[in-house]
Each structure stands twice: as structure tokens, then as C-alpha cells.
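Q: What changes when calcium ion is included in the input?
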Amino acid sequence: MLQLCLLQNVFLIWSKPVLKENSLQPDDVNYARAYLKMFYNLTEVRPGRAKRHTPELERKTKEMQSFFGLEVTGQLNPQTIKVMKMPRCGVPDVENYHFYPGKPKWRNHTITYRIAKYTPDLSPEEAERSFHMAFKIWSDAAPLKFVKIDKGEADILIDFGSRTHGDFFPFDGPRGVLAHAFEPGEDIGGDTHFDEDEIWTMGNTKPGYNLFTVAAHEFGHALGLSHSRDPTALMYPTYKYYNSGVYTLPRDDVLGIQALYGEKNARRPEVVTVPTKCEPTLSFDAVAGFGNEIAFFKNRYMWLRGTWMMYWNLIREGFINKLLKNFHSSIDAAYDIPGTGITYLFTGPKYWILEQATMKSHARSIYDFGFPTIVKQIDAAVYIKETGKTFFFTGDVYYRYDERLNKMDPGYPRSIQNDWPGIGSKVDAAFELSGYIHFFSGPKAYKYDYQQKYVLYVVKANAWLGC
Ligand code: 01S
Ligand code: CA
Ligand code: ZN
Ligand code: ZN
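A: The predicted holo structure follows.
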């Protein structure tokens, strides 16, 4: 993307600075050809002197005009040349999204989709997961609901095909056009076709294209957005890999989709007060080793307690974003690997890696651990040094992850109530200390013998903070 900007500026330097309002300079057609070659893949047989305009040139000019919201004539008029000579990068905060002529959109905000055909490149579950996540990108930003149906006529019919595949827009073999989608409307309206001559992938493996990324872009078309001029937008016309677990819709696309379907009901702001430490009902969101201390998280606040005998009574505290620069959310779960200084923090479907209490990674997806997508957040996590396993608690079940093999153990999820008698069916937080697990559930803390599977004693959760 950056490269695109730089190239564009090279063009600017080469081009003649003066442009008369209503006439084309002789160089302009050559400039336009070079521009369309660079940005629109113009591949025309070298035109003879008699043949100034080829059908290919006209086609690519139309494509460019449509992208920039100009009148689509296929002719290189001064207005078109002027836009070609305009720098298109470095203008953030202006609206760059575009609609289709007539601004078509779905009247009903519950939109159905159906998968007519799957790709042999992925398992059906993988394809479904990609489409689900791609729709969710849009329904998270606007009041839309997507419902998958398996029979009957759907608003958005998803199909894979190669070359000629039943509409007037045959695909072009590997690379080039990856997919296309029709604007909202009857029949073919909203339908989304993927080029089966591409290799469709789940991650970022090459060669191939990530199905989630392309689907998210195509569904933007199917909802009524055409291409955006903002290089950071999802609706920008070039492919870029995005991680489905952590990707959220860029601002330009949010503005575009909300202009069509309205804003999503505003979420109530999170609590930003200091929790009352010794309030008898205090519960914790997460507890874990944190550098040389133990961290107790509650809403946007945290306490840090020394682990060495002489520091036992030393408690530091503050808002999470003060102790962890730029981290603005509450924390669902956390665990650490003692001796390495590594701590993992979880919020919703995302996690972060810290080393010696310092952020070491960008947000990553919890699905990296091998959780099924029905898991949307983790309640508690604890690593057991003796076995090299990490337990993840979510709802009334738990999973076991093998830190040495870096994969989820088979046979999970299992019931918390059945396997961890005495602590109830749900867990808020957990950590290990000196061979025992300390579980937190509501205002109670349980010291647990995980080999014998029984509760040694129960105390108030905030007893850990000296209350
Ligand atoms: N479809 O939505 C596209 O933008 C087509 C080109 C149209 C002119 C049909 C396409 O496949 N473009 C490539 C692409 O990567 C470059 N599109 C999907 C994306 O994720 N940007
Ligand atoms: Ca193709
Ligand atoms: Zn098609
Ligand atoms: Zn597109």
C-alpha cells in the first residue's frame, strides 16, 4: 500500500504541473496509459499511431472512473486526467467510501445467505467459519443480522466458479480478479462469487488468498458499498491479508456502512471507577503472575502484590492503562509461565503476550490456541508447572492446552462441576502458587489441591489484598 503511494508521487513529479481546464495535453494520454498500467493492470498491445484508443484502454478508464466516482465514459477527459494526477494518499479523515448508483441497499436488516457450493481448498467448516466471521465484521458495525439458510432463496447466494460461471463476468484464471459481488437487489443482487482458480486459505499461507479477507470485502459490495479510495479501508480494491480473529472494520468502511444502515445502538461505557478493595462482595476478573508480582484485575483496575515473603504486604495499584501503557480494556483471564516472566492476557476473542510485565505482542486471536469458534471469551486460565498444561475455563466447561506441544489436548471441553468438585460450575479467575490452584468465583477464593481434587479452604477473595 505504501509502495502504491510512493509510486503515485513519482508520477506526480514526472507529470507536467500545468493542466489547462478544458483541453488534453498531448502527453496526457501517455500519462494515463502509464497510470492505468501501474494501477489498473492495463495490458494492451502496443497501439499503432492510428489507434490511439483501444477497447482495453477504454475498459480500464471506465474502471478507474467508476472507482473515483467520476462519470463513467471510458474517455480520457480533463477531469479524469486531473484525478489521475491527484495524490490519493495522505488524506485521512475524509470520507472515501462509495455507493453504487442509486444507493441500493437491503430494506430488511435481517439478511439471509446460503452457500451454493464449497471450495475443495478448505473443509466446509472452515469456509463457513470464514463467511461467518466476514459477515460479523459488518454486523458489528451496523444494525444488521445475517442468517444462514440451507434451502430456499437467500438474499446473498455464495458460489465458487471458474472462468464462465453463469453471469456476464467470467473469471480470469489464477490471480487477477479473485471474486466479485452484486449490489443489493432482486435475483442476482447481493450474490457473491469466488474464483475457484484461486487457492483459498485460512491463514496467510502463500500461494493463496485468505477467504475471510476476500469475503469480508465482497460482502461489503453485497451490502451496497463499492470501492473506497482510502488505502486503509477494507473496500480498497487491492487484496491484503487480515487476521479474522482480531480484525475490526476500519473507520472509512464503518462510516460507509452506517451511512446506509444507520448506527449500531451505542454500547454503554465501561466502568472506570476505582473498585472498593475491601467491599465484601468484591470479585476478580483475572489473577496471574506478573513479573515478580501477582496481578489481580477488576474492571479497568489492577492490584499488584509481591510474592516474596518480605514483600507480601506491599501492594501497588492503579488503572490498567497506567500500569500497562495503552491497554484500555478490562481483562477476562490471565495466566503466566513461572520462570519465563511471560504472562498472557485475554479479552474477548483476543489475547496479548507480556514479558516481564511489558507488552510484547499486538492483539492475537484466541483461535490460535485451537478453541472452537463457539468460544468467544475465556473466564479464567491457569498454567500448571508440573504438567506443562494450561487449563482454560469458559462458561461451565474447561479446556486443557499442552504448552510443550502447543496444542489443545483431545477430549475437551469437559464439565467444571464434574472434574473440579467443590468450586461450583463457573470460575472468574485462577492462578497457581506453591503447588496449589487458587480459584476465584464471585466473592470467594478456594485453595485447591489439584492432584487430590478437593478444596482445602475458602476465604474471601479480597483476603488476597489484605482485607
Ligand atoms: N471484487 O470485489 C473486486 O474488487 C475484484 C475486481 C473487480 C473489478 C471485479 C477483485 O477480485 N479484486 C482483487 C481483490 O483482491 C484485486 N478483491 C478483493 C479484496 O479483498 N480486495
Ligand atoms: Ca482470478
Ligand atoms: Zn460471477
Ligand atoms: Zn471489490
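Observations recorded in class: The CA atoms of residues 1 and 231 lie 7 Å apart.
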